[in-house]
Amino acid sequence: MYYILYRKGYIIKKAINIRINESLLTDLDSYAKELKCSRTYIIEKAVKIEIYSSEEVTQKRAKLQKLKQYQDLEFLEVGVDDGIK
Predict the structure, then answer these.
(1) For residue range 52-70, what is the model confidence (pLDDT) as tens digits?
(2) In sequence order, what E strands does the chain have?
């Protein structure tokens, strides 16, 4: 594993190793060549799309947000009862 360090406002990227089906890798290479971009670019975009559009992830984030709001509300209620302003 190695790191690619970019300075002066650029993103620091970390190299990873993955296992991928050979036919999918062939498709990835063909797509990258067609778009004239790197495999990394395509994989980053695909991962971002999956993370931000995944219904499961969205539901978990919503539950965490509700839990946080409930915890904040509970704290405020306790504060009011204890005379804290």
Answers:
(1) 777 777 788 788 887 777 6
(2) 3-4, 13-14
Are 28 and 39 contacting, i.e. CB atoms less than 8 angstroms apart? yes
**What gap in Å lies between CA 70 and CA 78, rounded to an integer?**
12
| Beta-carbon count within 10 A of 31 CB | 12
pTM for the model stands at 0.54
pLDDT digits (tens, 9 = 90+) for 71-82: 655 555 544 455
The domains of the chain are located at: 20-53, 54-85
Q: Is 4 helix (H, G, I), strand (E, B) or coil?
A: strand
Tokens of 45: 């975009």
